[in-house]
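Give me structure tokens for this 140-residue protein.
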Amino acid sequence: MNDALSCRTIGVVRSPFKEKGDAPSQGRHTDEISMIEIAPEYRDGLDGIAAGDDLFILCWFDRSDRTILKTRKRGENEGPLRGVFSTRSPARPNPIALTLVKLVEISGGTLRVRGLEALDGTPVIDIKPYSAGIDTPRES
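Here you go.
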């Protein structure tokens, strides 16, 4: 396998969640507001997004354990172990988080968003718009 990948941080999360136990398991479980500060060299990429938009935020959960391949569902201390790729666990080989947020406000290079479960200081690696026509499952 080719391990020569390159990923750039485009911004950083400023959130009320300071430690792992502070953050909810999923962004949809919080109405807290977080800020995403976009680096100056990437701010032109924000053109076209506006308050009210639903956005996918991709973060690098830099404080997650990257050695775990099996885990239990959250809250199931007795349940069977499952592969991390069948869960939403932040512990995984590449701790990439995907969260759908509501953009509350954009000012310069700062986005105010609702529904982000990332810890304060988490690197942001990408932002993508939600599209109901693309982001809903196919019917069988």
